[in-house]
Structures are given as C-alpha cells and as structure tokens.
Design goal:
This protein is α+β, with helices and mostly antiparallel strands and about 210 residues long. About 55% of the residues lie in helices and about 10% in strands.
Length: about 210
C-alpha cells in the first residue's frame, strides 16, 4: 500500500501501538530505505532532537536549488553545488556518530542530496556550454525535489521555516518548468510503501499412534 508523505502520520495514529506486523519503506528520489518499523516511525514523528535548522540549511538558504537562471554559467553554479555537497557530507559524518534509527534515515537522505550534488558537479566541470549547464542544473533540482520535500514536511519543523520553504519550493517548481527543461511529471513526491505481515500461530496437529 502506497501512502503519501503528508498522510503517514495520520495513518500511524489509526493503528494500535501494540499491533505488530507493520513495516514501512521510504522512497525519496535516489534514496530507498527499508525496512522501517512502526516504532521507528512513531519516534520520527515525535523526534524532539530533530534539528530544526536543517531545512533552511539544505534548502531555504541554498539559492542553487530554487533561484532562476542566474546559474546558467558553470562558474556560477559550481561553487553553490560544492558548498552544499560539503555541508551535506559534514552532516552525514555527524549523524554517523549518533547511530539512532531516526538519524540513519536523515543521514541516508542527506547523503542522497550530496550524491546529487556530486553528479551535477562532475557533469558541469570543464564546460561553459550554457545549454548543458542549464539541463544539468534542472536534473539536479528534479532529482533533489523528493528529498527536500521530505524535510519540508517533517512534523517537527518550525512553522515559520515550513511556510518559507513551501513558498520557495513552489517558486522552484515554476522555475524548473519554465527555465530548466523540466516536466511536471518528472517531479516525484516522496512516499511510504506500507506492508503488513500477520504472524500466524502454527497449527498443532495431534499425533495418533
């Protein structure tokens, strides 16, 4: 069963906390995480240790992810990509020092964003072709869209950070469609794949002599 990102929290509220057998997988662009237990998902929802500065640090303050075509020259795009990549890699290293299940999820997602940066950098280095740079940057934003959206809709975000990020994401989508060769059908939302495996009690067959 496929459940949208924004609906998962209501879904787990409907399930009894003691009900076993539910498993979850998170799909966000190039990141696939499974299995994630219901206990971990509940912890994720109420994660008071969640860093609320993470959303602005990986998106709101990173113009490379939402600004219009001022970045069509590789000399303008590469510094922003390298800075974001370095930030993501540093954050992943910090998460590895505290290997909780929620941090494993955050680390994998941020690592996926760093990977997207690295691939875009490799394609752009050594070129000055405006069309190529524009296309690569459009792909980078498209691939990163699901990861960014996961963090925008994290339930522990500050409401002002959330609103600011949503406004910029809407603007980023418009820019991708009008200036970076993007298609709306290519913007994939992150989602949860939910499965249930009932543990059946083995039937004891009486032995007759």
């Amino acid at each position: 069963m496929k459940i949208a990102l924004s609906e998962i929290w209501n879904f787990i509220d409907l399930i009894g906390k003691e009900e076993k057998g539910w498993n979850y997988a998170l799909y966000a662009g190039n990141v696939r995480l499974s299995p994630i237990s219901q206990d971990v998902l509940v912890q994720l929802k109420s994660d008071t240790a969640y860093n609320t500065e993470l959303l602005p640090e990986i998106f709101t303050f990173r113009e490379i992810l939402w600004q219009p075509d001022v970045f069509t020259d590789s000399a303008m795009s590469l510094p922003g990509l390298r800075i974001l990549k370095a930030y993501c890699e540093e954050y992943v290293a910090q998460f590895s020092e505290d290997p909780t299940e929620s941090n494993r999820i955050y680390s994998s997602l941020i690592g996926g964003l760093a990977q997207n940066c690295g691939e875009a950098i490799s394609k752009m280095e050594g070129t000055t072709r405006e069309g190529l740079v524009t296309r690569v940057l459009g792909e980078f934003r498209t691939y990163s869209f699901p990861i960014i959206k996961f963090f925008i809709y994290h339930p522990q975000n500050r409401i002002d950070y959330y609103r600011d990020a949503v406004n910029r994401l809407n603007y980023a989508v418009k820019v991708m469609l009008t200036q970076f060769y993007g298609r709306y059908t290519e913007l994939n939302d992150p989602y949860w794949l939910v499965s249930y495996q009932e543990k059946k009690t083995p039937i004891k067959i009486p032995v007759t002599e």
